[in-house]
Amino acid sequence: MKKRVAILISGRGSNMEALIRAAQDHNYPATIELVISNKDSALGLQVANSYGIDTKTVIRKNFNSDQEFDDHISNILLQVQIDIICTAGYMKILTKKFVDEWMNKIINIHPSLLPSYKGLNTHRRALEDGARVTGCTTHIVRAELDSGPIIMQESVHIEKDDDEDTLAAKVLKLEHRIFPESLQKIASGKLIIKDNIVLEN
Ligand code: GAR
């Protein structure tokens, strides 16, 4: 049985598109059932629609609290019988209750080699530090920001002439490779999570 996946986005949705394209393969162990955005301007919504994927927009200001907002999203995901959630450029911190409800079922992509450079402006901070290497990480989501068991990482060298844009482009290419591969590993049950470590089954 293929796993039913929802993708949460806030913007352009290029990682979302990489997941959608991977899931078009008949042998891929997951199907993308729904894309939810917290921004009605998110370009990714149009991209998802162009692939025939259902989309919903849920706006924080229509709710009294982060908890009510997340509860609403959680209910939608339950109705659609979602097994796995991928956060792909979803720029909103999930509440602890939401993460607990979906424990070990949320996968995030982050544009740094975690645990370095949690949060925003990862490439700028790596350049400012004179780091020689950076990259991206997929991980199982825990309540603390950008933390949780690491699924995959890929690295790139930071060259002398790199700026924030060139670095972001190089890293994004890797993101588009490791996110679909990570979802594949999780959806096919190839991984087990022991304490804070992801192991091959
Ligand atoms: C990606 O680089 C993703 O790793 C990053 O936002 C970008 C979204 O691009 N996510 C975060 O910074 C979350 N902490 P996309 O919308 O084209 O996938």
Report the average pLDDT across residues: 98
**Beta-strand segment tally:** 9
Bound ligands: glycinamide ribonucleotide
- How can the largest sheet be summarized? 7 strands, mixed
CATH class: Alpha Beta
Oligomer: single chain
- Give, in order, the helices and strands: EHEHEHEHEHEEHEE
* Gap from first CA to last CA: 18 Å
Cross-sheet strand order for the largest sheet: 3-2-1-4-5-6-7
| Structure class | alpha/beta
Strand content: 25-35%
User: Please, what is the CATH homologous superfamily?
Assistant: Formyl transferase, N-terminal domain
What can you see in these coordinates?
With 201 residues, the protein is of the alpha/beta class. The chain has a single domain, classed as Rossmann fold, CATH 3.40.50.170. The chain is 34% helix and 26% strand. The strands form 2 sheets. The chain has a 7-stranded mixed beta sheet with strand order 3-2-1-4-5-6-7, with helices on one face. Strands 8-9 form a two-stranded antiparallel sheet. Helix 1 runs parallel beside helix 6. The relative contact order is 0.16. The mean pLDDT is 98. The chain binds glycinamide ribonucleotide. The site of glycinamide ribonucleotide has 14 residues, from helix 1, strand 5 and helix 6.
